[in-house]
């Protein structure tokens, strides 16, 4: 079993150990793949897990993904490789076959690559160094973009890599800030690889971190933790609301009322979604909107926004024979009490 090269125990070790126990994030004796960029967060995570390894019995390995975005990316990869060698950890390197043009494309490639490495090395868990600071940034970024509650919950402690995947993505540092990981690396005398793109103000997240957060700290020195805690509260509330939405959706779309007399002959060749207004009238607006959003996600060619959801929600109490103007893609909703009829245009698949 690998042993830590540095026996200094810190409050951060205690905090992470407690978090793992309370949240049951990484069970004992599991095989864990650590995604390491070389920055202070992922380096801190690796060192902390390595120091805790003797208590938990984990198998640890390091993976580094080279996106080829920077001229020093190869040197960056070699730095992480040398670190893995010094800490006696297996190392896996993946180099992008092309330079991806967007962060979203690069993220997709990165998680696909990490999944492949984890499966080939028989690791059940992939861990990343996302911190409370990242969580706060994501909350603000999504808030500015007009995200709903689901977006504001930001990063979660764990999630499946894909819908049908047995691999779990774990973020153990969501109660630890970026300033804490920086102090940790300095006190442990661990070098880090500075990513020059983190200072590029063309990226919205960098502007939030470098320009917005310093202003927010003037109002609350613990602004990042406060925002991260808000995301944690919202996460639990979203889980509850989604469970309730799932149960309600079944009731709302259940065909237990005779619809033979509904006059829909003018659109009889088109597919129709029946939405029970009577059921929706009995639940709070928050659940009405969630059910409507879930239905529209199946119909619209784009992700439904607030105005789309409100337009359909307004029909819950609208007079009979009311209807909407077309949604993106051409779908139309009409009231035929007690139903709202949402007519699909074309194939909804």
TrEMBL record:
EC number(s) from the headed UniProt entry: 6.3.4.19
Superkingdom classification of source: Bacteria
Keywords, alphabetical: ATP-binding, Cytoplasm, Ligase, Nucleotide-binding, tRNA processing
Catalytic activity field: cytidine(34) in tRNA(Ile2) + L-lysine + ATP = lysidine(34) in tRNA(Ile2) + AMP + diphosphate + H(+)
Limits of the tRNA(Ile)-lysidine/2-thiocytidine synthase N-terminal domain: 32-210
Pfam families: ATP_bind_3, TilS
Segment forming the signal sequence: none
Domain tRNA(Ile)-lysidine synthase substrate-binding: 279-326
Domains (record comment): The N-terminal region contains the highly conserved SGGXDS motif, predicted to be a P-loop motif involved in ATP binding.
Entries under NCBIfam families matching the protein: lysidine_TilS_N (TIGR02432)
Protein name stated in the entry: tRNA(Ile)-lysidine synthase
Lineage: Bacteria, Bacillati, Cyanobacteriota, Cyanophyceae, Oscillatoriophycideae
